């Protein structure tokens, strides 16, 4: 772990375009070297886009793995670059939507999906608005402490998923919390909801949190611009009519919002995650052969 972090620190010393080139090169290598990860990506793409051709699946998989490894290397920018150096590469659209949602001291859930540019979105928006994030503790205590220490420079609070009361208190006090409910979740508080016209185990926590806090939901997308032009943060208007009163309808709506984000930015969505695992036995297990 320490060697990997030292490697990222060395990456932070490189020019921006060199960091991107290195990330893409690692992606090409990973396509051929990490067969299981490649098969997960291909299975997800085939499941979500059943009408595409084999060449489309293969090409999209290659581009996604390049995006994935680029995102890993880009963390060096998030953790070690100064604000002055980074500001030249970023653009924020729709900041007025966030500030409107915060009017009257309303709490705001910054709804985002797991994209390869996730950390960049946290860094960029965290520099201009006080935000917190709900995250899963890392299995490695050293890395968990390291990333918490780095994020303190641009994230006001870091709330572990097993500490929901902290998130609720923050929202009731008018705070902003990053929340990404688009990964596989089973057990109490989950239902089967539609995602790309497929069923996926999904947390219902978004609905419950809105019902308890009256928070507004503001979708946020972070995009890596083409040709090394930097990053764009897109902040949409708050969702209308989301009151947290209908668990099934609300959860499907949240999934549809994140699905739209992914369709607009297919390459950068987190296809390496096994989103459709843990289904009941009567449903096909698309990952069963690996």
Map the helices and strands.
Layout: H1 2-12, H2 16-33, H3 35-48, H4 54-80, H5 83-87, E1 90-93, H6 95-101, E2 108-111, H7 118-126, E3 132-135, H8 141-151, E4 157-160, H9 164-172, E5 176-179, E6 190-195, E7 198-203, H10 205-213, E8 216-224, E9 231-235, H11 247-264
Parallel strand pairs: 1-9, 2-5, 2-8, 3-4, 3-5
Antiparallel strand pairs: 6-7, 8-9
Helix pairs in contact: 1-4, 2-4, 3-4, 4-7
List keywords for this structure.
290 residues, 7-stranded mixed β-sheet, two-stranded antiparallel sheet, 11 helices, 16% strand
Strand content of the residues, in percent?
15-25%
Work out the helix count.
11
Rg, Cα atoms, Å:
19 Å
Placed side by side, the strands forming the largest sheet appear as 1-9-8-2-5-3-4
User: Structural class, please?
Assistant: alpha/beta
Low-confidence stretches: none
Helicity, as a percent range: 40-55%
Question: Sheet with the most strands?
Answer: 7 strands, mixed
Question: Which overall shape is indicated by the principal axes computed on the Cα atoms?
Answer: globular
Return the average pLDDT rounded to an integer: 94
Instruction: Kindly state the number of beta strands.
Output: 9
Distance N to C terminus: 26 Å
Order of helices and strands: HHHHHEHEHEHEHEEEHEEH
